[in-house]
Amino acid sequence: MAHQERIQEVVSFFGPPGSGKGTVVQEWHRRGMVQALSTGSLCRQHIKEQTVHGKEFKQLLDKGLLIPDALISAMVRDWLLANKTTAHTILLDGYPRTQQQVFQWDEMMREAMDCVVYSVVLFEISDEALIERLSQRLVCSDIRCQSVYAATEGLVRCLNCESLLMRRHDDKPEVIAQRLVVYAGHKRAFLTACKERGILVRVFNVEHVALQDMFEQFLAVLYEKNGSAV
After folding, report:
1. pTM of this prediction?
2. Are 121 and 21 in contact (CB under 8 A)?
3. 120 pLDDT higher than 50
4. I need a surface site. Which of 95, 99, 220, 222 has the fewest CB within 10 A?
5. Residue 187 pLDDT greater than 70, yes or no
6. Per-residue pLDDT at 181
7. Would you list the DSSP string of 140-169?
């Protein structure tokens, strides 16, 4: 009987901050169903550990420059090669984000991964609902954790690592509004690139989804048989 190679599933999240991506990641982790990469957290880890990537990132950030797409993609590729044998779904939280990263991601999947199926889940929510939600957001102060909570839960410490919870400096309404303008431009370019590459984008409308229902409804969107490309 011929050996049938296992198909590796890779999923990327795209959506504005506060749209529920972190909530889904937390629950997916809790159930032991996913191997997740947060590009922001990994960048900070590389800088802290002074790796080759980390030294390049720090030099750029110290000069007030953005990290080029090529360097972010190289970091993600190294992580994928180190984790591609996992039995779990691989989740890329925060990558790709730009048009160029989409092209690099597509090439990376073809070259670095065998028998891979990859797709995007787009988290949709109105600007008004998002601003209200972010004004209530608390995050774990430990950069290795970064678990997300709502202020209405009344918690002071993270349930996962017991670090103190804090408000992010960029969760002020005026800052959020500016970030949403930037996000809208990135979103248009991102979806155009996905369409050009034939990458499946599943839309997850989280506008009226309660936190306790977020994960189950996410799974229903991810594994629906007739997902459509945007």
Report:
1. 0.79
2. no
3. yes
4. 220
5. yes
6. 86
7. ES-TTT--EEEGGG--SB-TTT-PBEE--T
Place of tokens 């034939």: 198
The overall longest dimension of the chain from CA atoms, in Å, is 62
Q: d(Cα 204, Cα 152) in Å, to the nearest integer?
A: 24
Give strand ranges (E) for 87-230. 89-93, 116-124, 137-140, 148-150, 165-166, 201-205
Rounded to the nearest 10 degrees, how much is the dihedral formed by the CA atoms of 35, 146, 219, 76? -40
Report if residue 143 sits inside a domain: no
64 part of a folded domain:
yes
Residue closest to 15 by CA, chosen among 117, 130, 133: 130
198 burial (CB, 10 Å; 0-12 / 13-18 / 19+) is: exposed
- In one-letter notation, the amino acid at residue 34 is V
Structural domain count, the chain: 1
124 three-class SS: strand
The predicted model gives 43-50 an average pLDDT of 91
Question: Which structural domain range is residue 76 located in?
Answer: 8-126+199-222
Are the beta carbons of 42 and 79 closer than 8 angstroms? Answer: yes
Determine, yes or no, domain membership for 133. no
Instruction: Give residue-wise pLDDT tens across range 69-102.
Output: 999 999 999 998 888 888 889 999 889 988 999 9
